[in-house]
Each structure stands twice: as structure tokens, then as C-alpha cells.
Amino acid sequence: MIKHWFAEFISTIFHPVIFILSIPFFVVYRQTDSGLYALKWTAFTSAFILIGVMFYLYGRFKGYYTDHDLSIREQRHSFYAMALISALLYFLAAVFFKGIFFPLSIIALGVMLGVIVFELVTYYIKASVHFAAVFGWIVAMWLIYGITPAMASLWIIPLVGWSRLTLRRHTRSELFVGALLGTIVTIFTYVLGRYLFDPVV
Q: How many domains does the chain have?
């Protein structure tokens, strides 16, 4: 019982939404050195994440989703469709206010790519979004701030992996696919951002 409770606790505090919400702060802060400005755009991001959360809650209320992890693979398709709409709105809003070269515009493109990739992969395997978020976040920290913060965050990987396996939400292969996709999408988004900001790189 305690083991199960602790695994639930780990899965909750390291939920993908937490990582997704924190990335805009770290990216904008890196670009501007302004914590207040970074918090403003983090709040901006949270409004679009809220769209996905509300859609999920509506789905739970209607019985479309059986649990908060969307453990049944087939139930993920409608959620990914709504997540893609939210990401598209996020992208359009970021471009409208700050232009295509704003970091959040690039992040929004990355999120859209990630949602599309996970939607396609879901037809074959229930890739772990938790692990994708963890690996994506650590890789992002490495690319943006260097190896030290990334290495300091590696302990999260076995902890989240253990929790997902203990709760029987995923298999090892699903964790591996999630980690691989999160890494690839993050690196692609970073390279795209570098190209848009500095095409000669």
C-alpha cells in the first residue's frame, strides 16, 4: 500500500504538465535574464495547458477516459487531438504577440510535433508521456544551460521509471519509446530554434 501510494506521489509531482509548464520559464529566462518576464510568459503558457486539462476533465465526467493516466491506449487519440488544437492556438497566439522568432513560438512548434508523433505512435504502442517529458526536460536543460544541471537532474529518470512500472501504467518498452521520442523531439525543436534565430549556424 505504501509502495503504491509513493509511486502515485512520484507520478503526480513529476507529471508531464509540470515539465511542459516549466520549460517556457527556463527558455525565456535564458534569453532575457528576467524572472518576472519569464513568469509572465509561463502564465501565458498555462492558459493553453488549461484548455487540455479542461478537455480531460470533461472526458472523465462523460466517461470517455477511465483514469487520469489514460491507461487505455485507444482513449488517447481524442485527447491528443485536443492537445494538438491547444498547441496550435498556443503557436498562433505566440506568433501574433511576439512573432515566429520568439522562443515560445518555437516551443509551440515542438509541442505540436510531439503531439503528432505520439498520436501516430499510439496506434502501435502506448509510449510513456511521463518518460518523454522527463527526458525532454533534461535534454532541454543540457542544451540551454549546459551539462551540469542536466546531470544534476538524472536522478528523476529511475524514480519516474520505477513509479510507472510499479503502478503498471507502462512496460519497459513503452518507457523506452517515450524516452526516445521525448529526446528526439526536444533536439529537433532546439535545432529548429537555432536555425530560425541564427540561420548560419
A: 1
